[in-house]
C-alpha cells in the first residue's frame, strides 16, 4: 500500500497545503499519503483511523487468512448481500452499487481487502475530521472520535447522505481559513 500511496502522492506538490478526503479503503490511502505530504489535512469518511478499529469479523478474517480463500468475484455473485452490507436502501443506490461492483477489478478488490485487513496504521496525529454512518455494517463507527455521525446511514453514506456530507466538508473548509 505504501507504494500505491506514493504514486498517488506524486500528484500533490509536497509544499502545497491540501485536503485528502478518503472514503472506506481510500481513507487508509489518505492517511498513508499524508505521511508523504505533511501539509495535507485528512478527512475520513466511513473509514478506519487505525487497525485497532477493525471490527471483530474482520480481525478473524485477518488472523485466519480467510480473505485469501474468498473468490474476488463473490460480491458480484451476491448483490443482495452487498446491498445489505453497504446499507443501500433505494433502488437508485442499488443500481449504482451494482455498477460500482461490476466496474471494480476483482483482483484489485481482493488486494485492497487484504491491505485493509493487514494495515499497520500510520504514526502521527491522525485525521483532521471523521464522518461515519451510525448503521455502517462493513466498518462500524468507533465509540469515539467521530466528528459527524450521520444517523441511519450505512457504508454508502457518501451517496445516501451526499447533501449532509457536502455541507460538513464545506463547513470544515470554511472554518479552516
TrEMBL record:
- The superkingdom listed in its UniProt entry is Bacteria
Q: Tell me which residues make up the AB hydrolase-1 domain.
A: 8-164
List all membrane-crossing ranges: none
Q: Name one Pfam family in it.
A: Abhydrolase_6
InterPro entries named in the record: AB_hydrolase_1, AB_hydrolase_fold
Protein name as it appears in the record: AB hydrolase-1 domain-containing protein
Q: What species is given as this protein's source?
A: Hymenobacter nivis
Q: What is the lineage of its organism?
A: Bacteria, Pseudomonadati, Bacteroidota, Cytophagia, Cytophagales
